[in-house]
Design brief:
This protein is an alpha/beta fold and 303 residues long. The protein has helices spanning 13-20, 27-42, 46-55, 63-66, 80-96, 116-122, 128-137, 140-150, 163-171, 197-215, 237-240, and strands at residues 72-76, 100-104, 154-157, 176-180, 221-224, 245-250, 263-272, 275-285. It is 38% helix and 17% strand.
Length: 303
């Protein structure tokens, strides 16, 4: 199933799923499989496909290639919808491949991000128009059927919990992936003593570190969104010190209209604890969120 419009190869998750079942592929076997797949896609001869793949071996790693057991990936960006849209193709592919997702939501009721309607549309179970119509008509039969299909394999945490409870939730799921929507304003573990924005910023690295300690106990991985330890994207340094990789999304913040396609180009800067690695260009597709428009008092859930 094709989910989203991010220019990244989600097939990188397949090896992780096989490793969870005890199947360990050698680099040579994995490379031969990639060569054969490229031959099928392009019609190239074996040697031509092999040269093309070898030429790109040192390219900057993209989000799907970074997801592996024990990995904690931090996303540095100030927009909730952008964070979710950037991660959604990986989340949807993980679920479609039989994996399990543990999610911490941001927001209340049906407009929490991510929500069941987000997954329904992103996973291709229903269109934006269908989801909007069912919600407006309160068609409980169709909504229940769609929601059950979309959230199969998903466990949701709302509000803070303890490292022990979060670890137990991940251990209970085969092939688990933790997705934290907003670690700054709605952290799953450590909370600021007061509702002080400075405290929120200061606690972001501590929360990422606490999540990492949980992930180290389980056979899973984590994507942690909205890791803003400062008022601008240049604050990636304290995050990159505690995450395996930090991905900073740079793009022009747009005011989305009801009728636009909600796709935009972005540059992804990739860091590891040693510093900057490289960057790559991608397209982020937030169109699966358009079901919210007719139901919200304003025209945008935020960029």
């Amino acid at each position: 199933m094709s989910i989203g419009n991010i220019d990244a190869d989600v097939r990188g998750l397949d090896t992780w799923a096989q490793a969870e079942k005890g199947v360990h592929m050698t680099d040579n076997k994995a490379q031969k499989r990639a060569i054969r797949q490229r031959m099928e896609e392009t019609g190239e001869k074996y040697t031509t496909a092999q040269r093309a793949l070898l030429a790109t071996e040192d390219r900057c790693p993209e989000l799907p290639q970074l997801i592996k057991p024990g990995a904690v990936i931090a996303i540095v960006n100030g927009g909730g919808a952008t964070n979710l849209a950037f991660a959604m193709p990986v989340l949807a592919h993980h679920l479609d491949s039989g994996g399990h997702l543990v999610v911490t939501q941001y927001g209340d009721d049906r407009f929490a991000i991510p929500s069941a309607p987000d997954l329904v549309v992103a996973r291709g179970i229903a269109s934006v128009a269908e989801m909007t119509a069912w919600l407006e008509a309160r068609d409980e039969g169709k909504l229940r059927h769609a929601f059950e299909a979309a959230v199969s394999g998903v466990k949701v945490f709302k509000g803070p919990t303890t490292p022990e409870i979060l670890a137990d939730a991940l251990k209970a799921e085969p092939n688990p992936l933790l997705y934290v929507q907003d670690v700054q304003t709605d952290p799953p573990l450590l909370r600021p003593a007061q509702a002080d924005r400075r405290d929120e910023f200061e606690l972001v690295p501590d929360n990422v570190r606490a999540i990492r300690q949980v992930i180290e106990q389980v056979r899973g991985a984590a994507i942690v969104g909205h890791c803003m330890p400062a008022y601008d994207i240049e604050g990636w340094e304290p995050i990159s010190e505690v995450a395996d990789h930090t991905l900073a999304i740079e793009h022009d913040y747009l005011r989305f209209d009801r009728d636009d396609d909600r796709r935009f180009d972005a540059t992804i800067e990739v860091f590891d604890p040693a510093g900057p690695l490289d960057s790559y260009e991608t397209t982020i597709d937030t169109s699966f969120l358009r079901w919210r428009h007719p139901l919200l008092p304003t025209s945008s859930p935020g960029a």
